[in-house]
Amino acid sequence: MDFGFEDIPSNFQYTPKKGCEVSRMTEDTDCDSSRGESSSVSVTEIQEHHSSSRTDDISRKAQESVEKINQSRISNQKMIDSFQEKLVEKVTDLCMQMKEHMYRVYEENSDKMQVNLQELQEVLESCTKFSHELLEANRALACLREGDMP
């Protein structure tokens, strides 16, 4: 994990001397004014650099996560769209098969009904013929009865 300390010299060591004030802005690592040397490192700068680096890292990782999520959503949407297209195709095919089967059944039933209607027509014609024959027989019997009576 990167903590953003690569800009700090490897020999850096903070040891406050007696009488040196520690400021949040700068810290003197060598507070000996007699030497005339003063090296200062800004803790705030280090913290800001470290904080900025971590913030940038977090921001970059968050953005990458959002992009991954968006890619996943796009992939999911494509998969759903593909599934829907295939489902519509399958349902359409199934409906066509059902229609074809329904029409075949209609045709078979229609043929059977036609045969039954033909048979019914023949039976009704026979019934009508027998009804006429019975009426003639009834008249003949009625004539015979009238002729036998005085």
Automatic annotation (TrEMBL):
Which GO annotations describe the biological process of this protein?
synaptonemal complex assembly
Put simply, this protein is called Synaptonemal complex central element protein 2
Q: InterPro entries recorded for this chain?
A: Syce2
Q: Where are the stretches annotated Disordered?
A: 1-70
- UniProt organism field: Oreochromis aureus (Israeli tilapia)
* Source domain of life: Eukaryota
GO terms under cellular component: central element
Instruction: Report biased composition (Basic and acidic residues) as residue ranges.
Output: 18-35, 46-67
